[in-house]
Amino acid sequence: MNRSQLRYFLSSISLAALLFSSGCQQLPSHQKATTAPLVSQVNPMIGTGGHGHTFPGATTPHGMVQLSPDTGIEGWDWCSGYHYSDSSIMGFSHTHLSGTGGGDYGDIMLMPFTGKNLWEAGTKAQPDAGYRSRFSHEDEHAEAGYYEVKLKDHHIDVALTATARTGFHQYTFPAGAERKVILDLVHGVGDNPRALTLKINSDHQVVGLRRSQGWAQDQYVYFVLEFNQPFTHFLTNDGKNIGEQKQIEGKYAKAIFEFSPSDKPLLAKVALSQVSIEGAMKNLSAENNGWDFNAVKNQSQQQWQDALARTTVKGGSEDQKNIFYTAAYHTMMHPNIAMDVDGQYRGMDKKIYTAKDYTHYTLFSLWDTFRAAHPWYALTEPSRNTDFVKSMISKYDHSGALPIWELASNETGTMIGYHAVPVIADEILKGNTAIDAEKAFEAMKAAAMKTDRGLKYVQSLGYIPYDKEPNSVSKTVEYAYDDWCIAQVAKKLGKMDDYQTFTKRALNYQNLFDASTGFIRGRNEAGVWVKDFNPMAISLLGSGEYTEGNAWHYTFFAPQDINGLIKLYGGAQKFEDKLDRMWTQEAVNDNEHAHDVTGLIGQYAHGNEPSHHVAYLYNFVDASSKTQFWVRKIMAEQYSNQADGLSGNEDCGQMSAWYNLSAMGLYPVNPASGRFIIGSPVFEEANIKLENGKSFTVVAKHNSAKNVYIQSAKLNGKPYRRSYIDYATITAGGTLTFEMGDQAADWFNEAPKSDIVHDYEGTLTRSNTLFMPHTRSDQRIFASELKVELNSFVDGATIYYTLDGSEPTIHSKKYQLPIHLTATTVLKAKCVKDQWADSPVMTAHFSKAFYHEKDRQFPRLTLKNPPTSKTYNPGHWALLDGTYASDNLRDGKWSGFSGHQLEATIDLGAVQNVGKVNTNFLLNTSSWVFLPKSYKVLYADDGKNWKLAGTQSLPVPSAHQPIGKHLFSINVEQQTRYIRVIAETAGKLPEWHPGFGNESWLFADEIVIESQGLMK
């Protein structure tokens, strides 16, 4: 249907439906409705360009189906399957992710076409090689609940709409043209088929299953596809045979359906289920049992109208209103309904369950959404947020763990923390009796008492050492916040021992505060700060001490104890000065792979979540005018009414929730505290229609782009002198009125406070941390002798040590002078101090190595190609210096290779009796670091005639793997002088990886040649 046909058709339906048809992405003014309902304010194209990773297609609020075009699946900027920069479409699939940093979904794709049968989509460079079609944004139109586009190559007008569990397609072919549709079950965004089933039930109906492995390791999507007209012929393709098989199964399943020419649109509707084909049929029957496309479209848009009407604004520019309502729309893309109309759903254990008293949901991007999205839901969709919490607890029941980053009933393990905890805690602390508080506390405590993901160090040391666990700083501070949330629930439930335990853990962030630099930063197991500290160095998952960020981003993350953090700085003024300096730093991202760290204002990064609360911290030091200035600047510069209108990944509603709360003048610095910090409202009036029947309104008088500063405030007509407002006050209903001006004003006398020690009920005692000893030098290999100096990070501690491998006690030798080593030795030492618990034991291995007396050097090392990057090139001898790298990608000891293999030749100086040859490699797939595809060791007496000692081969993994070091070892058992180690990189990143198509990395450290002749 072209534009003129659409306008003609709409003229015959109700006025309300006509209003819903108005434009929202660069539409000519004559196509806009004269009276615009809220749906017309939504621009689904926002975020489809740049790095927003949103999709423009049709869905309903939190619906199971997201029916949208797929333009590409090649990596980072195609996580949603669509990017505004593209000019061709592969097809229209029924599941999509909104704003994520990883790709998946894209299930059950349909594509109408004309001409010869082509089974593959073709490429962007050569769309004619497949069924892909070119398109123009001029012929594309998106609204909430509706999408349309003209496929240029086939001259087909496509219109899409949806119900919660079904997608509805309308294809208008050229008059008299042959009409064909391909169903492609192989297609997906960043995943691979595990098992596909396609069955032709009749000339109208097709059913099947797409079971895939991607970000979600084992995703089930059952479907029912029905056409409003019979297909006259069909072909199926199982990857080997093309024919008229009525049922095919395997890892390749596609079908082409041919229809007689007709002037009437061809309609197709698809129902989904995670449970079964029968479930999909029930969903279709319950939600879309007719063939009235416009009725379904109007129903979908009425749902959006009702959902958007919960929060309304007045004043501001049209662009600001578009941004606001689109942001509200984006908060309702996820989480998604994950149960059938009969209540059945697939659990985390892949068994089928029935939800009795709630709607079950999936897709919890909690590292992002706990910060603002869930507090937004608590205000605008509280009953649904309750169901979100019930869904999380259900996932605990079926897997033994709360979700971290759950997708399609799969735990992806993406990101850090256990941030279901603040979402659940917030509901319990608000008195939500629909939540089983005892069961919830059991689940929260279980998350905190695990020993993986660095938690064993939290329990033993009170922080995570950077040399033992990736993301050590980020994990430490985020766990500390989650633990505060657990403590508050424990207090509410009268569990006072747990209250004290987790309150102490909530202060763990202080163990990583370095007063000499003014940053939260990494220290090792012995308490030694990380060397060569650069607060602007950005690390990725597993590539350093921080998660998608740096010291500037994480130093301010102690939302549970802001006043405690201020004390560490020495007072309010010093803390304010530190905040000021963040905005004036150079706006640089030094990590080419850190695509998330965007939207930089100095070292504030709005395109990623760790910075989101920082501008509001000025309120805690009586400098709210600076909050007002910066949040208005962020809203003005980091959001726009364009395809690239988001400064970073939308992240399942978090970026949008930040905007909408901030536009109303509110933000939850501590999301589980029930407290919103006041910023600077954008609109003259913003209203929340509360679920309890009341409403809360924020009025900003004399507001403008210049008048960003609050002059005075009133609540329900009475002077209001606090720079915060509580959830209970908001939900009681009323009006908060601000007078705005262009100069900072002293308008409040009570700032927010967040002080763990001050607020604790009882006596809070924390045990002192006695760090283990450490060696002053990292040298572990020596020629004839070595002097080892030990040191303690804690003044007044005594060091006891042993050299025979036994555990040191207070009866062991006391360290006073450097230890003189002349042979291979295992040194163990610990610190002791009166009235402190003894430190953990330090263990260090020192090796006396073969030494070439003539050349006065260790075995000579030659690399065919140097490390690929200066960042990952610790020096020529790093592979053979006896100093081992840690699990931390950026500890400065790993040699990184990308695009070429590691080939190292070692000259022992003379023929030696060589046993095993070992090499350590790092596995960190999130940071693009893979183990070698093959590991070979060769030997030669003359350095020319090489013989193969052995090969180890390893397949490229099909999903992300746990971070850690892996030892590759091959027996040589020969007398020889020369050794060659060859490690082949994994090559291009695989399809399931967000960086698909880029070169992987190989990280190696320490080639160890075992031999009695070498080690003495």
Structural class: alpha+beta
CATH fold field value of the largest domain:
GH92 mannosidase fold
Please work out how many helical segments DSSP would assign.
20
Major sheet strand order: 7-8-9-10-19-14-13-12-17
β-strand percent reads 25-35%
Return the CATH class of the largest domain. Alpha Beta
Write down the Rg.
31 Å
Low-pLDDT residue intervals, each spanning 5 or more residues: 1-35
CATH superfamily of the largest domain: GH92 mannosidase domain
- Describe the global form: globular
Count the beta strands: 55
Residue share in helix: 10-25%
Provide mean pLDDT, rounded.
92
Overview of the molecule:
With 1016 residues, the protein is an alpha+beta fold. It folds into four domains: 242 residues, Distorted Sandwich (Beta-galactosidase, Chain A, domain 5); 448 residues, GH92 mannosidase domain (GH92 mannosidase fold, 2-Layer Sandwich); 75 residues, Immunoglobulin-like; 150 residues, Jelly Rolls (Sandwich). Helices cover 20% and strands 27% of the residues. The protein has 20 helices and 55 strands. The protein has a nine-stranded antiparallel sheet with strand order 7-8-9-10-19-14-13-12-17. Strands 49, 50, 51, 52, 53, 54 and 55 form a seven-stranded antiparallel sheet that branches. A six-stranded mixed sheet has the order 20-34-35-39-36-37. Strand 15 and strand 16 form a beta hairpin. Helix 7 packs across helix 8 and helix 12 runs antiparallel to helix 13. The chain starts with a helix and ends in a 7-residue tail after the last strand. The N terminus is likely disordered.
